[in-house]
Amino acid sequence: MEKEQEKELYSFEVKINKDVEETTVQVDEATKDETKITKKVRKEVPVRVVLKRPTRRQVEKAELVYTVKLSELMKLGVLTRAMVTKKYADTGGVLTEQEAQYLTSRYKRLAEIQRDFVNLSIKADNLSESQKTQLSEVTDEINTIRREIATTESNYSFIFQHTSDMKAANHVILYYTLMLAYTEEQKGDDAPTWTALYKGDTFEEKMEDFYKKEEDPDSFYLQVKQKLAYFVSFWYNGAIASKEDFKKLEEDIDKGKI
């Protein structure tokens, strides 16, 4: 059976106050009889939160989620980044024709290699040397393209904030967050078990639980939601791949650098 650690993208701990059973032993001085007394006490305990490595089926589902969401938004009249770019170039707006062509080519290439990144990163701990090299090269290219796009878009960020493909990508990030987030429980000497953070078997069912948690969040949920959002977003966008990358990102989050 595959070890649980090999199924992880990353895991981290948060502390919560919880009622736990604590057993003490009292000894009768006269008879030397022992009496076990169990009572519930309020203690700060660590909870391990796991971001599970997606399965091939989940990756394929995520691609479908993106396509469906993009189609829905476009039917509502929300333009893609490429369409916005072309529109402003054709009408002599803020973008030049050269900038528009450049951004369009960068968007296309980014979409191509982002699929390569996801397919490689889901098996990052079991890659051959050539695949590790490929993953490194893909990650470097993604970061380079994103910097190039950001440099060109920065002067016109107001026109790219609400495009359909950006909204669809955010929907996929939410999909991965809901499907991959688990908490780990250790009961006695048994092997630890994973429990889905969001209830439900399907994305739609988990969405319902997500809305409930957002409307009435507890202290535990408030601690984990931000980190999960950062981890999934950075991973999906190709900024991090290894556990070392995740750990560095977590350190930056904890220090308030992000």
What does this 3D model show about the protein?
The protein has helices at 56-75, 81-90, 97-121, 129-153, 164-180, 203-215, 219-236, 243-254, and strands at 8-27, 34-52, 181-185, 193-196. With 258 residues, the chain is α+β, with helices and mostly antiparallel strands. The chain folds into two domains: 4-55 and 175-254, no CATH class; 79-161. Strands 1-2-3-4 form a four-stranded antiparallel sheet. A hairpin with a 7-residue loop joins strand 3 (181-185) and strand 4 (193-196). Helix 1 packs antiparallel against helix 5 (164-180), helix 2 packs antiparallel against helix 3 and helix 3 runs antiparallel to helix 4. The longest helix is centred in the middle third of the chain and has 25 residues, at 97-121. It is elongated, with a radius of gyration of 24 Å. The mean pLDDT is 83.
List the helices and strands and how they pair.
Elements: E1 8-27, E2 34-52, H1 56-75, H2 81-90, H3 97-121, H4 129-153, H5 164-180, E3 181-185, E4 193-196, H6 203-215, H7 219-236, H8 243-254
Antiparallel strand pairs: 1-2, 2-3, 3-4
Identify the notable features of this structure and list them briefly.
alpha+beta; 19% strand; 4 strands; 8 helices; 2 domains; 54% helix; 4-stranded antiparallel beta sheet; elongated; 258 residues
Uncertain residue segments:
none
Rg from alpha-carbon coordinates: 24 Å
Strand content: 15-25%
Structural class designation: alpha+beta
How many beta strands in the DSSP annotation? 4
The helix-strand sequence is: EEHHHHHEEHHH
Helix content: 40-55%
Inertia-based shape: elongated
Instruction: Please state the average pLDDT score.
Output: 83
Largest sheet: 4 strands, antiparallel
User: Strand order across the biggest sheet?
Assistant: 1-2-3-4
The domain tally reads: 2
Distance between the termini: 38 Å
The count of helical stretches stands at 8
